[in-house]
Amino acid sequence: MDMLTRRRFLVASGVVGAATLATGAVGYRLSHILETAGDRPSDARTLVLVTLYGGNDGLNTVIPYADPAYHDARPDLAYRPEEVLHLDKSLGLNPGMTGFKRLFDAGRLAIVRGIGYPKPDHSHFRSMDIWQTGQPDRPGNTGWLGRWLDATGGDPRHAVSFEPVLPPVLAGATTAGAAVALREGGVSGAGVPARGPAPATLAGFGTAAPGEPPLQARAARAYADLVSVDAMVGKLAAAPAPSSGAATDDNQPKATGTGGRTALSAQLDLVARCVEANVATRAFSVSLGGFDTHADEKIAQRRQLSELDSAVTAFADRMARTDAGRKVVVAVYSEFGRRVRANASDGTDHGTASDLFVLGSPVRGGFYGRQPSLTDLDDGDLKFTTDFRDAYASLLDGVLHTDPGKVLGGWSGRIDGLLA
């Protein structure tokens, strides 16, 4: 994708303005990131943010297997106690998450329960906008990591996305992170985007609904623009595969909204290469889609969670072998959880509070936050017990060594004890 096309897309999305485009998000190559090798303080930590697009069902991820209300609400969708990977006498992990179970037992995985925000929104676009901007009270057009980049006056290469399009979380007011796209079989040497969903799928996302909120309409315009961008790109040239071997896009699940266009393992392989090269990047953004499980959820979600588990635990084990890797913290989140009660299609509909995973050598493993009640509900939804800004503040402070108040509008909450 040439610079003018990329700028046209970003302007259409409304995520960033002209000042940002002048200083970042213009299609970096992996070689541009590797040029910064060795250019970072020896004690600096690295944040890897993993976005699960579609709204992951937290109740079938961290499972309250001992609660009768869980089984009553979803009799066919619930996991039996003997199927669950037990973490304690009441909670366990989805059976597809054996690697996460191992990390939890080793004290390297923290699970933040009941995470959400006030006045939750069931829209994919609006809720993801809230999570990525860190501004639940009002519409925002800068991401929380983009504002961190603004505050540090950093090179765009200090915050890198291995996703097809720069995610809003890395867009600041005066600068933006670097987008290094993947394509089938490897890394784009020239910033060529990954091959994504079919044009008809994107066109569907690009159709605005009458009367929808401005932010959702803005997202629709972005997808409509992406259809024309993909048409301009045409046939992609072949490229050598990364050392770990990336699955082709035809085998990857498609997300609702975005994400899921390149194997998570391939994205994390590139992050690992950058960390091991001791590049200047302090924050990476990767993603996995396909969590919008309105029907036949049990098999589909377990497949997605198994992919997450395999990719993230392999990355964590690799990071544990080097000094630079032992300074990496991974945070995994989704835009919302699902309804407590199963629907008529053996799936779940858009809900609210869910779980957030934080892992890595600096992490003090265990449970954080209070488990939401399955009987004291808000119109069928879980009531959140931990504000997601508490998690962001802890990551900004403990990983990026930045005053969270300057990035999160004065927010002072924390998740005590999460990071060493």
TrEMBL record:
PROSITE patterns: TAT. Residues 240-260 are annotated as: Disordered. Pfam families: DUF1501 (PF07394). It comes from the Bacteria. This is DUF1501 domain-containing protein. It comes from Planosporangium mesophilum.
